[in-house]
Amino acid sequence: MEIWVNPACSKCRSAVKLLDEAGADYTVRRYLEDPPDAGELRAVLDRLGLEPWDITRTQEAVAGELGIAGWPREPAERERWIAALAAHPRLIQRPIITADDGSASVARNEDAVRDAIVRGR
C-alpha cells in the first residue's frame, strides 16, 4: 500500500496515524517532492475510477492562475488536466491511498482510510 501525502495537510497526518494504529504495511510518498508523472496519474485515476478534474484542488492559487475553473470537463480535455496535475502537484487532492488489491481511494475521512486498510491486507 502507498499513501500520497503532503505532511502539512491535517487529513494526510490523520490518515497516516490511522494506518500506523492499524499496523498497516505502507510506504509514504511525499508527492510534492516526488511528483507523479502523467502515466502514474493516469494509472491512479483508473484505479480510482475518477477523472482528473475529480481530484483537482480547484481552490489552490495555481488553479486560479491557470484558469482551471473554466476548463471543460470532458474526455477531449482529459490530457490537459493530467498535464496540469503533473506539472503542478499541489493541485492533486490528498491523501490518495493505493491498495495492494489494485484499488485506490482519496482518503479524506476515516472510513475511506479504514476501507483502504482492509483492502490492503
Written description of the protein model:
This protein has helices at residues 10-21, 38-48, 61-66, 78-87, 110-119, and strands spanning 2-5, 27-30, 96-98, 104-106. By secondary structure, the chain is α+β, with helices and mostly antiparallel strands. It has one domain: Glutaredoxin (3-Layer(aba) Sandwich), CATH 3.40.30. β1 (2-5), α1 and β2 (27-30) form a beta-alpha-beta unit. α1 (10-21) packs across α5. The longest helix has 12 residues, at 10-21. The model has no long low-confidence stretch (mean pLDDT 96).
Q: Report the sheet-strand fraction.
A: 5-15%
- Assign an overall shape: globular
Q: Structural class, from secondary structure content?
A: alpha+beta
Low-confidence stretches: none
The DSSP helix count reads: 5
Estimated helix fraction: 40-55%
Protein name: Arsenate reductase family protein
Pfam families: ArsC (PF03960)
Family: Belongs to the ArsC family.
InterPro entries: Arsenate_reductase-like, Thioredoxin-like_sf
